[in-house]
Specification:
five-stranded parallel sheet; alpha/beta; five-stranded mixed sheet; 8 helices
Amino acid sequence: MDTGRRGRVAVVSTPIGHLEDLSPRARRTLEEADVVACEDTRRTGLLLSQLGIKKRLVSMHEHNERRRLPQLMEALLEEGLTVAVVSDAGTPLVSDPGFLLVREAAAAGVAVEPVPGASAILAALVASALPPYPFTFLGFAPSKKARRRTFLTEAAELGHTILFFESPHRICACLEDAAAALGERPAAVCRELTKLHEEVLRGTPGELAAELGSRPGVKGEIVVVIGPAPKVRR
């Protein structure tokens, strides 16, 4: 039964590393929310603890998001609550959970309020020194070599700047595949953005693979940015 007490969904961006990147509006939204749907209750709990905020947390990650929908939709439609959606870091929905809830809430007439903030994608794009537009974000690179080669070969046809996430354990293999599939394009590896060990390396995929391969190991969260082929570079 529709009680007419629809709540709202607030899609709240959280810091990707530096706590000061949380906006005053994001903090206020988290303080006012009735429920915080989060990717990892431990990480979000730590963030809220640092902010001095206590809230009811509901886990919503890639493995349970669909199962959580009835519970969260009831909170929105029957109880008229405000549900804040956060990911572990950055902007929710972009390679993180939240899309299914936002889609269903919007279809039911629930207000969806974006609360902008940190984004590893945009941070990497502006730090890369590569053409900022047009660009395409491709999510996570596939873990299997054959699929990754196909992924990169298809991306080569876009003709503009591409970005994707990669694991530190696979970054060298991925860059070697990028060198084979994309050739000598300008590229950047953006690692640990906004954190203590932030690093932006620039060069061709082959050069970056050699640089990172020479290290004892690579750690941290990584965004790879690859520019267009020289003939179409802006």
